[in-house]
Amino acid sequence: MNPLKQHGRRGFTLIELTLSITVLAVLARILVSATDSVGSMTETGNIEARLHRSSENALRWILQDLRNSGFQIVDGRTYPHILDNGVGTAGFAAYTYVPAPSAAEPGDPDFGPTRGLVLCLPSDLDGNGRPETDADGNGTPELDGNGDGITTDDPADVAVLWGAGVGTIHPDTRLVWGHDDITYVVVPGPTGENELVRLVANGAGGRRVIARSVDRIQFDTIQSAGGGAGFPADAIRVRIFFRATNAEGHAFRSRNEAVVRLKNSDQGTASDQALGLGEG
Predict the structure, then answer these.
(1) Contact 217, 115 (CB under 8 A)
(2) Domain coordinates of the chain in residue numbers?
(3) Which of 8, 129, 144, 271 is at a distance of 20 to 30 A from 21, taking alpha carbons?
């Protein structure tokens, strides 16, 4: 018997070790690549979902205000007022602001003008969720100041709430318009991220951040749109453009827009509806 055959084979050859290491390296590289891909997909999904939520929330706030507003002349000022590139004119100079810079460049689908908006709303002095009116035309609106659920113009209901400068009664509709204007603008936030904010009384009555990562906002009347814009004369078009960048510098864009007819307009009663609501 050959003594060399009495012992079993021990260990691996150099070639076998090299092949094993190579295969393991390839598998590790594939695993790392797959992990990176999953992480990138997750980040992309998170950014897109965040922009979508911000878009829906911002438009919901704006539509609620627009639907209750109207084309009106209140205390000599004509509403709504477009702040073209942040500039307020014709009695709205105090609303002039510096718009947040837009990252969009000429040729980009989201490139365009920045236009904020100042609007007025019917008053709700007694906080019952219903606009006040002067039903009997005596110069004093019916309120529910004592909280009994009954609106009257008796002193018990109006004495504390109604007075000079509180609101303006429309001579024809007798609807009471408040003096705390609502303004929507896009400005730089404290971290440098653009913020869409809702200001009450130009900020004196409150400031709320409606959305972040807003590249720009554009409100239009048929006049600011150059006429023939395809929406009614008693309507406002709003376009909100979002932009966010991931860690690799890739830009994500989202857009939401609507055309809304303002029901409390001097031009006549308009239906309370949004036209062309969508996101792209």
Answers:
(1) yes
(2) 35-121+180-279
(3) 8
